[in-house]
Amino acid sequence: MGNKELRISPSVIRRLPVYLRLVQELKELSIATISSQEMGDRLDLNPAQIRKDLASFGEFGRKGVGYNVAYLDWKLRQILNLDRQINVALIGAGHLGIALSNYARFQSERIKITAVFDRDPQKIGQKVGSLTVADAQDLPLYRQKYNLQMGIIAVPASAAQEVCDELVAAGIKVILNFAPANLRIPKGVHLRNTDVTTELQALAYYLENE
Ligand SMILES: NC(=O)c1ccc[n+]([C@@H]2O[C@H](COP(=O)([O-])OP(=O)(O)OC[C@H]3O[C@@H](n4cnc5c(N)ncnc54)[C@H](O)[C@@H]3O)[C@@H](O)[C@H]2O)c1
User: Fold this and answer.
1) 116 CA to middle of ligand 1, Å?
2) Which helix (H) or strand (E) holds 27?
3) CB distance 185 to ligand 1 below 6 Å
4) Which terminus of the chain faces fewer neighbouring Cβ atoms within 10 Å, N or C?
5) Using an 8 Å Cβ cutoff, are 170 and 140 in contact?
6) Burial zone of 26 (CB within 10 Å; 0-12 exposed, 13-18 middle, 19+ buried)
7) Tens-digit pLDDT profile for residues 111-148
8) How many helices (H) and strands (E) does the chain have?
9) What's the rounded Cα separation, in Å, for the pair 54 and 68?
10) Which domains does the chain show, CATH number per domain?
11) What ipTM was predicted for this assembly?
């Protein structure tokens, strides 16, 4: 990973994949150019914000013409390092791990689950899609062999910190955690948590009381 992200705020980085998703939709609709106004309408975002976000990476829109969709696609992928294959280590070949391994959309986005690990002897050696579940102890070996750069934690909360530490020790610095646990990470490691339960709990607030 380059040091380019250090200059760009995390909130801008979070919006870039949203722009990229819109760009994919536009490509499917054979739309060749789009203005920041139209992007804002489609994404429910302020067009000035979009222009400012994109301008952080240089001038690539033209006044009165808008953004060239193909160029935007190329540029966003370049910024997000999605112009190359990113190999992912998935830890935990349980219900969620298997579902994630079979989720084809990652593949098309150049993010590929290249190795699946577990520590349960019953699971090690089993097939998950086209992959064979490996022993979690062998993570450092696989990390080198397959250039694993990203980790996904799909183990129970009780094992999540230990797995996180193993990923970090193996040299993986970018981690997505699905376990409902607050993980400690050293400086230089980037962690994102996704917790379906807390999302649902927050949504439950909006239910009307009967
Ligand atoms: N299943 C879901 O729909 C879902 C949704 C959101 C979040 N989650 C969270 O994702 C995590 C996994 O959920 P699940 O339903 O797949 O659980 P699961 O019990 O089906 O699978 C967990 C797997 O992790 C493995 N494991 C445990 N400790 C390990 C370790 N130290 N190293 C390597 N592997 C280890 C187990 O052997 C098992 O195969 C949980 O934290 C859960 O809360 C699950």
Assistant:
1) 12
2) helix 10-28
3) no
4) C
5) yes
6) buried
7) 999 999 999 999 999 999 999 999 999 999 999 999 99
8) 9, 11
9) 12
10) 4-79 (1.10.10.10), 86-199 (3.40.50.720)
11) 0.97
The pLDDT of residue 81: 94
Residue nearest (by alpha carbon) to ligand 1 atom 44: 96
Task: Please give the Cα distance from 112 to 101 (Å, whole number).
Answer: 9
Q: Which long-range contacts (CB under 8 A, 24 or more apart) does 140-147 make?
A: 140/169, 140/170, 140/171, 142/89, 142/115, 142/117, 143/89, 143/170, 143/171, 143/172, 146/87, 146/114, 146/115, 147/87
CB atoms within 10 A of CB 91: 28
Cβ of residue 119 lying under 6 Å from some atom of ligand 1: yes
Percent of the chain with pLDDT over 90: 83
Amino acid identity, position 17:
P
